[in-house]
Amino acid sequence: MKRREFLAASTAAALAIVASPQAPAADVPAAKQFIDLRIYHFASVEKQQAYEKFLAEVAIPAYNRLGIQPVGVLKLLAKDNTKKPKLEADSTDLYVILPHKSAESLATMETRLAADEVFQKAGASILVTPQKEPAYTRYESTLLLGFDQCPTVQQVAKADTRILQLRIYESHSSEKALKKIHMFNEGGEIGIFKRHGMNPVFFGQALAGAMLPNLTYMLSFDDEKAQGAAWGQFGPDPDWQKISKSDFYKDTVSNITNLILRPAAGSQI
């Protein structure tokens, strides 16, 4: 495939989001979701626990009323992350996944929540806090667009012992990032994952956020044993060996972030 042809094919779906403000949300392929991946930072464990309770009892039902589902709320624990990065203690962050069916849903979420009287009343203790005692210190947000072969967020594993693996693949150029996305879609890497029980929750191209350009994806497993077995089968898979050695996909990833997360109270993922 020629460079010009590859870039044209790979960016066709993304062009819709830079259309004029008058362009309808339908310009984005209907099957693909916009995924808002948030990381909330808290000043203490107590603040984290209070916000986790708020999400489970108030926010997630409100998100669902707006058509935002499934909502993920995840924790990062030291016992699961003993390599790179190695955590010395449990993180006080919360990872929140908000899937949107359209750009309009994404852009109007906060306004619609502000008009939701049930949400405002039930969540008042978190939503209305003094400046010196905020519910959270700040949150980071990465906006992702679902892949062709995994266009929406999925609720896969449901066991209480389930773990979620979040991986961020950074690339040294936008062209290489698009080639890595091509590797997952047309190259068949997502299909290889599924074949070995590596259950996709989402795959997303980062449109805005930190560490650009990158793609971010999440896999779900029933437990650590299932995760280890799946990766063990993936490595020697002949189809993976073939595409991983292809010159077309050479040097597409310059850095990988690998995190193991567990569902918090109320998480739908």
Tell me what you see in this structure.
The protein has helices spanning 3-11, 45-65, 103-114, 117-122, 124-127, 174-184, 189-195, 224-234, 238-244, and strands spanning 34-41, 72-76, 94-100, 138-146, 163-170, 199-208, 214-221, 255-263. By secondary structure, it is of the alpha+beta class. It has a single domain (3-20, 27-263), classed as Alpha-Beta Plaits, CATH 3.30.70. It has an 8-stranded antiparallel barrel, surrounded by 5 helices. Strand 6 (199-208) and strand 7 (214-221) form a beta hairpin. Helix 1 crosses helix 6. The longest helix has 21 residues, at 45-65. The chain is globular and about 55 Å long. The chain starts with a helix and ends in a 6-residue tail after the last strand. Mean pLDDT is 91; it is low at 1-29.
